[in-house]
Amino acid sequence: MKKDLLSLLDLEKEDFVALFTRALQLKKRYNRGILDKLLAGKSLGLIFDKKSTRTRVAFETAMIQLGGHPIYMSAQDTQISRNEPAKDTARVLSRYIDCLAMRTFDHSLVEEFAQNSTIPVINALTDSFHPCQILSDIMTIIEHKGGYKNLKIAWVGDGNNVVNSWINAASVIGLDLVVACPDNYGVNHHIIEAALVKNKNNIVFTNDPKEAVKNADVVYTDVWASMGDENELSKRIIAFKGFQVNKDLLSRAKQDVMVMHCLPAHRGEEISEDVLEDENNVFWDQAENKRHMHKAILESLILGPIK
Ligand code: CP
Ligand code: NVA
User: Fold this and answer.
1) Would residue 1 count as lying in a domain?
2) 105, 135, 216, 304: which has the fewest Cβ within 10 Å?
């Protein structure tokens, strides 16, 4: 049966480990000049209803480097914008391509595509989740910290799609995660309840950023207003006071703290200029690793699970 990647709750712990191992291996091989043409003759469709730099280019280059072919379709340029039903588009695309990556507002749209497709569907970001991002971010943590066990990871910011995927990952693989969001911008209670049912002991929720970053090994942040929320930015700048990741906040973390951001970043809002430009942080490695992780994801969904 075909598999989709719509949320990290679709994966078991072994799937995470297999993807980390394979992405790191593919990265090493690529850097040694070895071209693994594993997906020759295969096509990946990309339907993007929101803007993207990294995810789109990482998926397209991943597919090309594996010998396959990406086809980018902005939602406006397809019959979707003229109200062709999702279930019809999904059935038609299943006759042409081998996998579909989608970036949408409403998460239910990727679910509808997945239900009506005979090909794997990948969530390339929805309002609810950003699973591929967190897979490549944990890969980056493994590279820089030697693993993810016994590390304190602190989220400081909005209760958004990116932290939802962090919470999903923490509940499946047992990360030690502290999530700090301002009052009224916290994580949706359904996400919290699902995580706590799976794994109670390792995920903590707070509204105190200073407490969250205390002795943290990794501090992660993201924009205060995600795509679709931009008109709330001025209100959010007030509500998020004290949540900027800057040198003062980081003085409470471990001395070798690693700061992460999925990018794009808004300097002077969720992160200060000096932290973003600090060479000890890993933002650009995170961006690069999306390409290697996307290769591992595409291989496992199109050719079958990695053994
Ligand atoms: N991090 C991320 O998903 O970036 P893009 O929006 O540029 O794809
Ligand atoms: N939370 C951000 C992530 C962008 C990669 C957004 O959804 O806009």
Assistant:
1) no
2) 304
199 with 157, same domain: the answer is yes
**Could you tell me if residue 2 is inside a domain?**
no
CB of 192 sitting under 6 A from ligand 1: no
Determine the atom of ligand 2 nearest the C-alpha atom of 263. Answer: 5
d(CA 134, CA 60): 19
57 lies in the same domain as 144? no
Domain coverage including residue 59: 8-129+289-303
Q: What is the largest CA-CA distance in the chain?
A: 55
Per-residue DSSP letter, 267 = B
Q: Which ligand is nearest to the CA of 291?
A: 1
What pLDDT digit, counting tens, does each position of 207-250 carry? 999 999 999 999 999 999 999 999 999 999 999 999 999 999 99
Indicate if 98 and 180 belong to the same structural domain: no
Cα end-to-end distance, the chain, whole Å: 17
Distance 160 CA to ligand 1 centre (A): 14
User: Which ligand 1 atom is nearest residue 125's CA?
Assistant: 3
Whether residue 199 is predicted with pLDDT greater than 90 in this model: the reply is no
Closest ligand 1 atom to residue 287 Cα is: 1
> Do 186 and 267 fall into the same domain?
yes
User: 126 CB under 6 A from ligand 2?
Assistant: no
